[in-house]
Specification:
Elements lengths: L1 H20 L5 H28 L7 H11 L5 H16 L3 H27 L3
Length: 126
């Protein structure tokens, strides 16, 4: 199962990368990138959960899994990941044009974090 989650994360990150590469600042491009970011955030914690279970550990909630990933050395920026998760929660529960613009500006950094996680999980045997 962890291999499937890692593969899904790899594909979702590629789609987010595509969305961020769109030139221009249309609302549609911004909103698409934010939507794809939400998918990637979800798949990130679920990939950690699946990998943890494969190793005989367990985490049931996103922040719990992020702490486990930090302890395991799969992520190296716990504060950045907490910010990533906060942004994910803000985009899924509210919509505000100003907030959407601020979060969109942070997406390249969030993408880099998730790509580093993906690389770490793949090194572990994904």
């Amino acid at each position: 199962m962890s291999g499937q989650r890692v593969a899904a994360l790899r594909k979702a990150l590629a789609r987010l990368r595509e969305a961020l590469a769109v030139r221009g600042s249309s609302d549609i491009a911004r909103d698409a990138a934010i939507q794809r970011f939400g998918f990637c955030a979800e798949l990130s914690w679920k990939a950690v959960q699946a990998k943890a279970r494969a190793l005989g550990r367990d985490c049931r909630f996103p922040k719990e899994c992020l702490r486990l990933a930090f302890e395991a050395g799969w992520i190296d920026d716990e504060a950045g990941w907490l910010r990533l998760w906060e942004d994910r929660n803000l985009t899924s529960h509210t919509y505000d044009e100003t907030l959407a613009g601020q979060i969109h500006a942070r997406l390249p950094t969030h993408l880099e974090r998730m790509e580093r996680l993906l690389a770490a999980l793949e090194r572990e045997g994904g």
